Amino acid sequence: MKTNKNKYDVIIAGAGIVGNTLSKIFSANNLSVLLLEQGKHPRFSLGEAMLPQSAIWPFMIGEYYGIDEIKHLSNAEAIIDNITPHCGIKHSIGFIYHKTNERPGGDRIHQLIPPSMPFYSESHLLREDIDDYLLTVAKDAGTDYYEETSITGIEIQEDIVAVTTNKNTFYGKYYIDSSGKNSLLAKEKKYRNSASNLTSNSRTIFTHIEGLEPIDILINEEDHPKQNNQLHHGTLHHVFDGGWIWVIPFDNHHRSSSKLTSVGLMLDPKKFPINDKISPEEEFHCIIERFPMISEHLKTGKNVRPWTRSSGNLQYSSNQSVGHRHMTTNNTYGFVGPLYSNGLINSFETVFYASKIILSAFKNEDFSLEQFQPIEKLHKKQLQDSDLMISNAYKAMKSFKTWNAWTQLWLGQVLFHDLCLQRLCFKYFESGDKTIFENLIIDGRPGDDAPFMEKKKLMLHKVEKTLNDFEANNIDEEEASSIMLKEIQEQDWLPKHVFDWGNPLSRNVDFTNMELVKSLIGWGMNDAPENIKDNLFDFKVPF
What we know:
Elements: E1 7-13, H1 17-28, E2 33-36, H2 52-65, H3 68-71, H4 76-82, E3 88-89, E4 93-97, E5 109-113, E6 123-124, H5 127-140, E7 144-146, E8 151-156, E9 161-165, E10 169-177, H6 184-188, E11 203-210, E12 235-240, E13 243-249, E14 260-267, H7 280-288, H8 292-298, E15 302-303, E16 308-309, E17 322-323, E18 326-328, H9 330-333, H10 342-364, H11 373-396, H12 400-431, H13 439-443, H14 453-471, H15 477-489, E19 508-510, H16 514-527, H17 530-536
Parallel strand pairs: 1-2, 1-10, 2-7, 4-12, 5-19, 10-18
Antiparallel strand pairs: 3-6, 4-5, 8-9, 9-10, 11-14, 11-15, 11-16, 12-13, 13-14, 17-18
Helix pairs in contact: 1-5, 1-10, 2-10, 2-12, 10-11, 11-12, 12-15, 14-15, 16-17
């Protein structure tokens, strides 16, 4: 039953992509929802680049709940048609490795093009527009919304949660904190770890710019990957020892009316300590001047918003995510970094888990803590996985040879995690049974129950030890990269005829090539290890 009073079923703090999407789902399922926002929409936000998983998730959530407004996010054309003309397309993931005072050649460029499926395509999300759109659809569904509202107190009682703000005191049966790092709930409940248990350690400088020329015009023809898409048609990463730069264009969709590009510099503070005697913009340019191609690429753009510099490390973590009548979302529980664009994946995973479990709690009038444990488990695993991949990536950035090997490893593991979600969708298309998606709450994160998981864990453990030795100068780059490539080459769960795993010359792959995709599926159904055939390729071929 909807209400405009101060009593609600669910109170959500933080009108970002998670809070807004949950508000829409709960309101559409006849719960009364109050959404509180300290700031004001539309507002700037990061978390702009999608991956196959973060594009598939809105499709699955939209299908599961019958909400087209969420499903629109899974397709770049649907975003342009229904949400905003200011988003870009993501056809690939590109990496260019740089050395000080050197221009990189083609041997230091990677371009990885994911498969194209009819039910999803990846985008670059101008979050200002996306978040505002999701807020609108939540309000249209009945969500009450208050912005410029500061939460000053939270009292969790047996059957109710009292939330005091600068405007009023509101009462709810369940409280969701999606307010991020500065969460009052995390502070009052002492959830935040005083000393982060994360290995990753980084800081950032970022802005939005206009007028950026595509990187492709600066690359010699013989050095270009020569695949189906330009590097400008995807998310580009400039990588170097101690840091990397994201370049996320919103002007690269043929129907986009945007002129913007998101640019951000991520740094290891041990190698690049903050220089707060100069402005963030000045520090940014001081650093990129060391790398000729980066400097040439980024000097063509003009910032359209102030440069932002983190005052300290970006990382934070918590020791708890759920409690009696409340939970924190992924962005409140913890954060590692933007490398590999896991933020949106984590957000949509949280939306699905939380919405399903909380709706069940209201339906059954049962808020016992045990049933919320999958959320706790999810958030711990999200943070652990991100920390493992990102911390080791920074170690690998020390040299191109180790970075090259690490990029293959990342591609291999993420390819099959994508496949886990695609498999669910294919089985859904075949059966029409939406409950197939509920298996995720039982099985854990997509891929956690994959038949190759134990082998992957052993591989990552060995590679991490190798990178630690390399970072400590116990072994050189030749030995480190050789160990890593050999480890990748020996994995029988990686299809050798799709990509030449372990070959240092293998740097590019295009999964929009349908013959390559058919070859992958053919391997999975006929030549893969038996447990992979039986548990990962048990779907009807969709083409």
